[in-house]
Amino acid sequence: MRLCFLLLVACWPFTGSIAQQAASDTLHAPAPALPGVYADPHLAAFGGTYYLYPTTDGTEGWLSTSFTCWSSKDLVRWKNEGVILDLPRDLTWATQRAWAPAIASKNGKYYYYYSAAQSIGVAVADKPTGPFKDPLGKPLVAKAAFKGQMIDPMVLVDDDGAAYLYWGQGQCHIVKLNADMVSYDPAAVVEFKPPGYNEGSFVFKRQGKYYLMWSEYDTRDPRYSVAYATSSSPMGPFTKAASNPVLKGRGVVKGAGHHSVLQVPGTDQWVIAYHRFKIPGGNGYNRETCLSPMRFDTQGNILPVDVFEAVKPTKAKQVAPVRP
Fold first, then answer.
1. How high is the pLDDT of residue 57?
2. Residue-level pLDDT at 21
């Protein structure tokens, strides 16, 4: 017994140092959520299933030509649902630069917003996995229609069923969509640029407050990161939070940004999806998709995300969709 006690005492400092080392380890990041190189992930949940809609990465200049969808029942194991939109096959106005998709559900349909040929398009399907069809035969927001680049769309469907489109690189744009989800009044577009804003806007609502998040720096820059602002209205004005960025790389994790946020249905549990440089050997053209928990303090401020914390298996509850 005495020998056991002495061994325990002798090992105590060593055990503590192991725990301390694990907490500060910045060399062993969690595995990516998806195999291979995918970026700009949009995470959503429909009917008890999670879905990821990323950019297909791996070409210098971001010259991808199609989009895929991935599904999961627990946020951890993902199934490739295949190509859901192929630009040369499905569009008449764009053949490459398939970037930064987003999805929204309304009217019993699924609306897929995406960047192509530095314009923004929309496609419609009856299921989250497609097939998606182009209802317009032209961009929803054409290249050079407003200031900055017409890329990186995101749509928020509010509690009252109203839908808002956010987009833009170099400048943030907001407009309320018409009831059909595929048109809007160009004269109603609001333009502004939060301090540090570059691209990848994403908006969500929590406890009556609207959070506008975006990526700062360039996606090829290891400093690429995510900041946020808040408002009492989906159209703003938005006030940048004092504590930013809330997502950034650390250690072996570089270029953490261009994200989306998901509230686990029926809970106040939140997940942030984002990309980082591929580990090892990644860069702004070879990025991988990751998922981490996202939390708030008691005042509703977003707490810094730990890029070394992976999500745990979490089932999605079935919650009735928002209806107008």
1. 98
2. 44
Peptide bond into 88 cis (omega under 30): no
Name the CATH architecture for the domain at 40-294: 5 Propeller (2.115)
Kindly list the domain boundaries of the chain, sorted by start residue: 40-294
Catalytic residue, chosen from 40, 90, 152, 288, is 40
Annotated catalytic residue, options 57, 90, 152, 199: 199
- State the pLDDT at residue 35: 97
Task: Residue 96: name the closest of 60, 72, 52 by CA.
Answer: 60
Q: Look up residue 125 and give its two tokens.
A: 């399907």
pTM for this model (two decimals): 0.91
Question: Residue 199 catalytic?
Answer: yes
d(CA 126, CA 237): 35
pLDDT at 24: 73
Closest alpha carbon to 186 in 245, 153, 141: 141
Locate 169 and state its tokens.
């690189």
Neighbours of 285 (CB within 10 A): 18
Annotated active-site residue 57? The verdict is no
> Which segments of the chain have a pLDDT < 50?
1-22, 322, 324
